[in-house]
Amino acid sequence: MSDAIFVYGSLRSEFDNPHALSLRKNADSLGRATIRGSIFLVGKYPAYRREPDGIVHGELWRLRDPETTLAALDLYEGSEYSRVLTAEGAWIYLYTGDVGSDQRIDSGDFLAR
What we know:
By secondary structure, the protein is an alpha+beta fold.
């Protein structure tokens, strides 16, 4: 099981919700990172999709207890997100619902919308 996770939305270090705080408590920051794909605004949250191609900005974290932390994050992300491995071997939450092209965050950065 991979012990790395790429986060691009409300789990980033700029947020202080309980899940972001828990991630910071139970993981080590590997710094800012980018990944191929796109993010879309769905409600008030970002949604990652592999297509269309682009750059998504976020952070990479090394989990100290991957099984426990990922189980908690799976519950937080809910059924519309599926945890998948990136080509680089880090977990990311992929949105499985419908997105409209007009909802795409062109900058690829949820914080710079």
